[in-house]
Design brief:
Radius of gyration: 16 Å
CATH topology: Nucleoside Triphosphate Pyrophosphohydrolase
Number of helices: 2
Helix content: 10-25%
Distance between the termini: 36 Å
Shape: globular
CATH class: Alpha Beta
CATH superfamily: Nucleoside Triphosphate Pyrophosphohydrolase
Length: 163
């Protein structure tokens, strides 16, 4: 699977080049709580869940486990389910994201909140990026996530039978 694919669509008097980026996101749960985080030095980045860009030659199952560990530092994560995928176009940037969402379970009792540095940001940002993590109660205690990252929460809530 290619991590980036470019194609050209010819329209009226214009040629548009779009890059397809494969992104993965992890809904990590522990005791019916969802792991969320914010960027310590970038509050405009909003509240997020762990995720990132797939590397060349990587499949989504591998990428989500790698990204979850790199961003959180959590040991003992277990993949429970693939929740679905979506496409998000960003025409102003000439990019479309193919997003893959997974449910991961934290089998070891985690801290209530902690900070962790991502040392190899996939977006090219200077490292390290410090994230501050906490747990939000499912389903009603999860704040709005930036960039539609909460779009698969109904699938997660259904899987956990929390409705």
């Amino acid at each position: 699977m290619l991590c980036r694919l470019s194609w050209t669509a010819v329209g009226r008097d214009v040629v548009v080049t779009v890059t397809l980026k494969h992104k993965i996101y992890a809904y990590i749960t522990y005791a019916n709580r969802l792991l969320i985080f914010r960027h310590v030095d970038g509050p405009d980045a909003g509240i997020q869940v762990p995720g990132g860009t797939m590397e060349e030659g990587e499949v989504p199952d591998q990428a989500v486990m790698r990204e979850a560990f790199e961003e959180t530092g959590l040991q003992g994560l277990r993949m429970r389910a693939f929740l679905g995928d979506t496409l998000h176009a960003f025409p102003e940037h000439g990019v479309t994201h193919h997003r893959y969402y997974y449910h991961l379970v934290c089998d070891e009792m985690p801290s209530e909140c902690w900070r962790h540095d991502e040392l190899d940001p996939s977006d090219g940002s200077p490292a390290p990026i410090t994230f501050e993590f906490t747990w939000a109660s499912l389903p009603a205690g999860v704040p709005e996530l930036i960039g539609d990252l909460d779009e698969m929460l109904p699938a997660l809530v259904g899987l956990l039978e929390l409705e």
